[in-house]
């Protein structure tokens, strides 16, 4: 298998006539998933093998690990599955989900004290008022059903169209962070009276923390933590610094990795490395005064989805590396960091054609991937024997 390695990549650009509509938006794929490679895969830092854990998944979106070794997987169409050895069981009690274009049942995570309270959080596209919005809910997982369901938050307003729901969840310092895309309306990402294109900070019960950066501003929604985001589909807390790292889709180029600061403006759409579909710039490239420039960007776009820092014993050479899936230029990106900056990038699995929707590091130290498509798979990377 051919591996491509990059160091301090210069920006590359599409020509004006190059158009990648559905994939550039990180949208859905009706085709069946590509086959994972057989045998050993050689890479710059480690050799590994790809194992199939489960297959036949329909547009899988997110993965969470249960303490008993089972796994939760969301399917965009509205099913929440519990995967154990040799079988997949549907969880009952999932609320009504709006499956519209990129919307559906999206991220799922466990409460930090799940072992004691059995609570899970998940987000999904919900329909109301003639439109759709990203919604956050919480429920108690009891055997194979959800109990005590609560809707905690809705990224209002509801708007028509099925693009850019965002929908990643992380916890830090006793708070919950949720991404919401700008729903295909560029200007909304800069408008503080809307939750579109924002990173939102809540208590674990869905309340607004008193110290959120825009609390007390009558022109802003109080749950906003940062803004100027397009469609964030990857988010992770750095295991050493505690910083939140977030990546988001650009248009034709300009996918970004950002390190989050409270109250900061991350530029979309007033500053971007991307272009209009079909070519032509509509905003200057970063840096732009008043906005935060990305830590790293991909031009042309790879349509990133899912993100994880590697912390584990299975691959010592990957310790501290950042992994991101790619939906368009199909591969798994491995990024090396020094002092919080990206200094090298390697593209793994870049000739398989697999659209990678989610990336997680399991409690066993293996890297787990969800592949997109109507025949999606749960894969894991294990050290080559």
TrEMBL record:
Keyword Signal listed: yes
SUPFAM superfamilies: Soluble quinoprotein glucose dehydrogenase
GO MF terms held by the record: oxidoreductase activity
The UniProt record lists the keyword tRNA processing: no
Class of this enzyme: oxidoreductase
Name of the protein described by the UniProt record: PQQ-dependent sugar dehydrogenase
Annotated signal sequence range: 1-33
Glucose/Sorbosone dehydrogenase domain location: 57-380
Superkingdom field: Bacteria
Enzyme Commission code(s) on record: 1.1.5.-
Keyword terms, alphabetized: Oxidoreductase, Signal
Gene3D superfamilies: TolB, C-terminal domain
Lineage, uppermost ranks: Bacteria, Pseudomonadati, Pseudomonadota, Gammaproteobacteria, Salinisphaerales
């Amino acid at each position: 298998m051919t591996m491509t390695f990059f160091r301090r990549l210069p920006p590359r650009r599409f020509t004006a006539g190059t158009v990648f509509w559905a994939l550039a938006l990180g949208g859905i794929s009706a085709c069946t998933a590509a086959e994972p490679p057989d045998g050993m895969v050689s890479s710059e830092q480690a050799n590994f093998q790809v194992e199939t854990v489960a297959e036949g998944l329909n547009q899988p979106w997110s993965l969470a690990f249960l303490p008993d070794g089972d796994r939760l997987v969301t399917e965009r169409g509205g099913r929440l599955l519990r995967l154990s050895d040799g079988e997949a069981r549907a969880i009952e009690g999932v609320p009504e989900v709006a499956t519209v274009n990129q919307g559906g049942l999206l991220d799922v995570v466990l409460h930090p004290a799940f072992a004691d309270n059995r609570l899970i959080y998940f987000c999904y596209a919900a329909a109301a008022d003639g439109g759709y919005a990203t919604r956050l809910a919480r429920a108690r997982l009891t055997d194979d059903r959800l109990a005590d369901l609560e809707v905690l938050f809705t990224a209002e307003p509801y708007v028509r169209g099925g693009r850019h729901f965002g929908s990643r969840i992380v916890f830090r310092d006793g708070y919950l962070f949720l991404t919401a895309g700008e729903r295909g309306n560029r200007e909304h990402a800069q408008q503080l009276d809307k939750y579109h294109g924002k990173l939102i900070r809540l208590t674990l019960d869905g309340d607004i923390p008193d110290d959120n950066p825009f609390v007390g501003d009558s022109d802003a929604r109080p749950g906003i933590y940062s803004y100027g985001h397009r469609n964030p589909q990857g988010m992770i807390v750095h295991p050493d610094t505690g910083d939140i790292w977030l990546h988001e889709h650009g248009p034709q180029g300009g996918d970004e990795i950002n390190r989050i600061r409270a109250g900061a403006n991350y530029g979309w759409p007033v500053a971007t490395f991307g272009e209009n579909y079909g070519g032509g710039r509509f905003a200057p490239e970063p840096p732009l005064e008043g906005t935060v420039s990305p830590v790293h960007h991909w031009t042309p776009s790879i349509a990133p989805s899912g993100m994880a820092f590697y912390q584990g014993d299975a691959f010592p050479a990957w310790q501290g590396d950042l992994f991101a899936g790619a939906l368009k230029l199909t591969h798994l990106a491995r990024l090396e960091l020094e002092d919080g900056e990206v200094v090298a990038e390697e593209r793994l699995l870049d000739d398989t054609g697999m659209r990678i929707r989610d990336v997680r590091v399991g409690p066993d130290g293996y890297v787990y991937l969800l592949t997109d498509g109507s025949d999606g798979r749960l894969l894991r990377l294990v050290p080559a024997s």
